[in-house]
């Protein structure tokens, strides 16, 4: 059993229309793979009582119609599916490259992250852009991806007081996580850069260019390239 895995799935009632299946704890690729496989299997079977499945790091929220199935029946169904994980068909993970302009007006908290860790801003950029980040979950806002794999040398706390407005495309750090704000919204992460890419567009055939299980890589680009790249994404 991999570290963090529970010997048996733990179930929690989440309101009167959802059950939370908990497979372990922590940020663990093996646990997250179990979550993805279960989500794919549930979606494939199209159970008439199941309304939605929401995967996260180590949990799967299953929303259901209580007029069609009760909580005990749903848990029994999910336990049965665990014996059929080899049948799950999940899409192959892809690597999505995101250009980022670090620092300056795009990354007002870059200097803080550097000082907090006793390193230079250039080292923050190097470490942040050197890693490959697995998308463990998408939530908070459409297209907001929670990424695992942030180097411990650039961990940083959330802001004591969140900003009321964070520009779309802002790249931030909060604790051991990093991510990108796809839409302009409030937020409390330390902002170290911004991408000119539009990461959520409901008018596109595929509104979000990635999904849970994919890999994100950040590529540093000079600030003077931001406007050009932003225009290119709109063509």
Please tell me the total number of domains: 2
CATH H level, superfamily name of the largest domain:
Cyclophilin-like
Chain-averaged pLDDT: 92
**Could you spell the SSE succession in H and E letters?**
EEHEEHEHHEEEEEEEEH
Which strands sit side by side, in order, in the main sheet?
7-6-13-5-12-9-10
Structural class of the helix and strand makeup?
alpha+beta
Global Rg? 19 Å
CATH topology of the largest domain: Cyclophilin
- What is the second-level CATH architecture of the largest domain? Beta Barrel
- Counted by DSSP, the helix tally is 5
Uncertain parts:
none
Shape: elongated
Main sheet record: 7 strands, mixed
Report the helical percentage. Answer: 10-25%
Number of E-state strands: 13
Spatial gap, N to C terminus: 49 Å
Q: Mind telling me the CATH class of the largest domain?
A: Mainly Beta
List keywords for this structure.
7-stranded mixed sheet; alpha+beta; 235 residues; Gyrase A, domain 2; 4-stranded antiparallel sheet; 2 domains; Cyclophilin; 5 helices
Description:
This protein is α+β, with helices and mostly antiparallel strands and 235 residues long. It folds into 2 domains: 5-87, Gyrase A, domain 2, CATH 3.30.1360; 95-233, Cyclophilin-like (Cyclophilin, Beta Barrel), CATH 2.40.100.10. The chain is 23% helix and 31% strand. It is built from 5 helices and 13 strands. It has helices at 29-45, 71-81, 110-117, 121-130, 226-233; strands at residues 5-13, 18-24, 50-55, 59-64, 95-102, 133-138, 145-148, 163-166, 170-174, 177-180, 185-187, 190-194, 215-220. The strands form 3 sheets. A 7-stranded mixed sheet has the order 7-6-13-5-12-9-10. A 4-stranded antiparallel sheet has the order 1-2-4-3, covered by helices on one side. It has a two-stranded antiparallel ribbon with strand order 8-11. β1 and β2 (18-24) form a beta hairpin. α3 (110-117) crosses α4 (121-130). The relative contact order is 0.15. The model has no long low-confidence stretch (mean pLDDT 92).
